[in-house]
Structure formats: C-alpha cells, structure tokens
C-alpha cells in the first residue's frame, strides 16, 4: 500500500513538473509577435487632437473647440472632449490593428452648435480599426474607411 502511494505521488509530481515546463516555454515567433503588438499598443497610449472628421478638415472658431481624446491601453479606457462635452468610455476591444469603443458617457452642456459634437460621438461608435503613421492616428469604420484622423499632442 505504501509503495503504491509513493508511485502515485511520484507520477503526480512528474506530471505537474512536465505541465509547468510546457507552460513556461514559448516560441521566438510568438514572443516577437507579442512584443510588436505591445509596442503598437503603447504607441496609442497618448493624447490625440482631431484633425479631420469624415475626411473633412475641421473649421473651428477657436482651438478650444477642437475635439481630443486620450487612449489608455492599460486600463482599456478613453476620455476626451467632443468640442462641447467631456467624454469617458471603455475600449471594448484593442489589438495591433483593431479598436472598438464601448458605451461612451458625456456631460450634457448646452452649446450653441452641437453639430461637431454629435458627429464626433457618432463616428466614435462606428470605429472598428486604426492605422498609425508617424504622429497621426486614423480611425476606421468596419469597411476600412477613414472616419476620424488625429494628431498626437502633448
């Protein structure tokens, strides 16, 4: 009885060690992909100011009206300003080429013209992807069409 218990315990320990060793191993390819993906996500983690909406340059009375957003890839949140109201929301999905925002909440200020604010918020709900080039961020709809473009700012 004692020998069978020791054999069973030895097999259990051997199986556990094998399992843990297998979990700790990774291929160089997957490590490179993860490193590249993390670098890409880290480059999104910044403050962005809106340059175009539906590929049209913004016509603003004042720079204080310019929509902006901050993306936080670690907390999977976005916050910003739509030209009138402050915004906050979750990033529902994010990877090296796709981004999707969850529900967005906003303050309810009564600004004289809500056209820009409404269009900006509507476009945010349609975002499914992105591309980056240098200090520019392009948000894309489900068909890959550019619907918002931003410039990185400090």
From TrEMBL:
Occurrences of domain DUF306 (ranges): 46-151
Secretion signal, residue range per the UniProt entry:
1-26
**What keywords appear on the UniProt entry?**
Signal, Stress response
What PROSITE patterns does the database record attribute to this sequence? PROKAR_LIPOPROTEIN (PS51257)
Pfam families the UniProt entry points to: META (PF03724)
Which chain positions lie within coiled-coil regions?
A: none
Give the source's domain of life in one word: Bacteria
**Gene3D superfamilies assigned to the protein according to its UniProt record, in alphabetical order:** 2.40.128.270
Q: What name has this protein been given in UniProt?
A: Heat shock protein HslJ
Q: Which organism is it from?
A: Marinobacter mobilis
Highest lineage ranks of the organism? Bacteria, Pseudomonadati, Pseudomonadota, Gammaproteobacteria, Pseudomonadales
């Amino acid at each position: 009885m004692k020998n069978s218990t020791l054999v069973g315990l030895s097999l259990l320990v051997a199986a556990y060690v094998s399992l843990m060793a297998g979990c700790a191993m990774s291929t160089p390819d997957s490590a490179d992909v993860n490193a590249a993906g993390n670098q890409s996500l880290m480059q999104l983690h910044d403050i962005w100011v809106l340059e175009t909406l539906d590929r049209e340059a913004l016509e603003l009375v004042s720079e204080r009206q310019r929509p902006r957003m901050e993306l936080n890839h670690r907390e999977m949140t976005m916050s910003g300003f739509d030209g009138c109201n402050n915004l906050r929301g979750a990033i529902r999905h994010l990877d090296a080429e796709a981004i999707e925002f969850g529900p967005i909440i906003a303050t309810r200020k009564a600004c004289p013209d809500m056209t820009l604010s409404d269009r900006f918020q509507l476009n945010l709900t349609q975002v499914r992807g992105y591309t980056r080039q240098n200090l520019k961020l392009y948000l894309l709809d489900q068909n890959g069409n550019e619907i918002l473009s931003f410039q990185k700012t400090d």
